[in-house]
Amino acid sequence: MNKTAVSRLTKVRHRNELNSTLSSLPMSAKKVLFLVLSKINTKNEFDDNHIFYLTANEYVKWVNVNIDTAYCSLKEGAIILDNVLLKLKHEEIIELSDELQLLFTSKNAPDYINLSLTEFSAYYKNEGKIGIKFTKSAKQYLCKLVGSEKKYTTQILLSVVKLSSVNASSIYQLIRKK
Question: In a structure prediction context, what are the per-residue pLDDT tens digits for the chain, which is 178 residues long?
């Protein structure tokens, strides 16, 4: 299920377990990811086959860059996101095993596990847009968050995409988590 409108007050939410992965992303990938996340209604679950699209014009509107920069940033961000792994620690694996259907218990859980963020991304050169399809395991971190005992981080979209450095973005993310 998508949000119908994105405004200056739009918030982006994700489970806290994603914070370490997101803080390590380069800004190009982080901006693309958060703009795509802004299209997710975190109260509901989206279809497993749903592809989220982001256009160069949307990127220009939010990030305030020229259209050529937007095209390059979309393409670069999507390529990076295809290689992003969600890193779960031992405790997180045990806690989330049932929910993510990982089939681990406290006795057989590994020290860490890496899960892919996206199944794929697609770049449509002639249309000036990208499409991103999240994996089923990543989906658990992006939707059905409200009411989950505040195990999620909320960030204001406009603030996130206006930041220019990874460090500033990571500090903002940490402040918003707390």
Answer: 455 566 777 888 888 888 888 888 998 999 999 999 999 988 888 999 999 999 999 999 999 999 999 999 999 999 999 999 988 888 888 877 777 677 788 888 899 888 899 999 999 999 999 999 999 888 888 887 766 566 877 777 877 777 676 666 667 666 666 6
What tokens appear for 28 in the block?
Answer: 């190009």
Query: Nearest-CA neighbor of 37 among 153, 116, 125?
Result: 153
Global confidence as pTM: 0.83
| Distance, CA of 123 to chain centre | 18
Q: Which of 77, 84, 80 is nearest to 129 (CA)?
A: 77
